[in-house]
Amino acid sequence: MKKGKEAMLSDHMEGFQEKPINYNAYEVSFRRWLVGQIDAEKMSFQQARDRFDLGSQYRRIIRNWQERYSDDIHLSLQAMSGKERTDVKALEKRIKELEKQLELAKMKNVGLNTIIDIAEQDYKLEIRKKSGPKQ
Fold this sequence. Notes:
Elements (H helix, E strand, L loop, with lengths): L1 H10 L16 H12 L5 H8 L5 H12 L12 H41 L13
Helix pairs in contact: 2-4
């Protein structure tokens, strides 16, 4: 009697049985693209499963693909929040200030080198250290 029930249940499982999926059939370029989309949070695991019919093992498979194909450096950027934009403006202002200070330091350096050149020429002073071994 038990055998009859098993046969009867299996006859009605066609719609519920998962068809086997050959995950190796997916091209490497597709795998890399999908991992990139998921890593950049442009697509969720579930969205990938639904869109590409990945089956019930989709999480394990995508994790394996992530281990294999994820970049350590993600090139996609998230949208900046208002606070981050304010921070960026503050940083840009700071950069401008530092560029101004750098320009002044360069002008001072040119001026000091000019003074040293004139002193060495006109007054025959050795101000700069001579490079090379001492004799």
